[in-house]
Design goal:
Blueprint (H helix, E strand, L loop, with lengths): L1 H25 L9 H25 L4 H10 L3 H18 L3 H22 L9 H21 L2 H14 L7 E4 L2 E4 L28 H19 L5 H4 L4 H8 L1 H21 L1
Length: 274
């Protein structure tokens, strides 16, 4: 009887030790070939994105004054948060060997987001959000990668940054840079069939909206940053890990993005009932 108890305890100890080792490995150095800093920056961006959606839900879905106060203060930073996320995604795509697979995998994920918001929060439906954009951007990038390889990275980066800035106002009906802008023909904004590109009618609505223009040029800016990295010329500071938990979050950013809103809504619903 004592031997049986000892064996059971020993089995539980071995199982617990394996579990702890598995958890530790998750937070250890990333797989060979990955740059820890990219994962950690992406992890920081996903935390900021989750926090932004938390305060948005507090303010507009649960009518919590503190949520509205923080959201109003943080609203100006949303383009920066998403911009960092897209920039890192472009850089990572330059390093990836499976962009077509990654892009195709994002399509059903984006569809799930649209369907869930359509059924549960139809007034806040997401028609073409960040996942929709990334799916399309990564697939397009797969096919234009041979062309990207021929462009000097610095020239490509500077051109894409300029085009991103010049086209930033396209969804609002104009293009240009500060001090010089051109209003686009109104006929481009009478129908919604080019919503994915950035041309929408006044009746179009998407709570989260990141059309191909201008955001694809920010994505390409990241890809050109990734060119020397893909050639093995990454600086030493990018090879080091500074915050492994952030790296873990960055490597699992898709799962976090898909799960965070339902979790936020469930927690806020419970808190609102207390």
């Amino acid at each position: 009887m004592q031997k049986t108890k000892f064996a059971m305890r020993n089995t539980r100890y071995i199982y617990l030790n394996k579990l702890l080792l598995r958890i530790k490995s998750r937070f250890s150095s990333p797989a060979k070939g990955r740059l820890p800093l990219l994962d950690e920056v992406r992890g920081l961006a996903i935390i900021a994105m989750v926090a932004y959606h938390l305060f948005y839900s507090m303010a507009f879905l649960f009518d919590m004054p503190v949520g509205l106060t923080v959201f109003n203060a943080a609203q100006a930073y949303e383009p920066l948060i998403v911009g960092v996320f897209i920039l890192v995604s472009g850089c990572s795509s330059r390093l990836s060997r499976s962009n077509l697979k990654r892009g195709l995998w994002l399509i059903p994920c984006a569809a799930v987001v649209s369907l869930v918001t359509l059924f549960f929060t139809p007034e806040l439906v997401i028609v073409f959000g960040i996942l929709h954009f990334l799916a399309l951007a990564i697939i397009i990038f797969h096919f234009i990668l041979p062309l990207v390889r021929k462009i000097p990275p610095l020239a490509g980066f500077l051109c894409c940054v300029f085009l991103f800035a010049a086209l930033y106002g396209l969804p609002e009906g104009y293009i240009g840079v500060p001090g010089f802008s051109v209003r686009l023909p109104e006929i481009l904004y009478r129908r919604d069939f080019l919503f994915w590109l950035g041309f929408t009618s006044p009746t179009f609505g998407s709570e989260d909206y990141f059309p191909l223009l201008p955001w694809f040029f920010l994505f390409l800016s990241g890809a050109f940053i990734g060119t020397p990295l893909a050639e093995g010329r990454a600086p030493e500071f990018m090879r080091r890990s500074y915050a492994r938990p952030l790296g873990f979050l960055g490597r699992h950013s898709l799962v976090i993005y898909l799960a965070h809103q339902p979790v936020i809504l469930a927690v806020l619903w419970v808190v609102s009932r207390v």
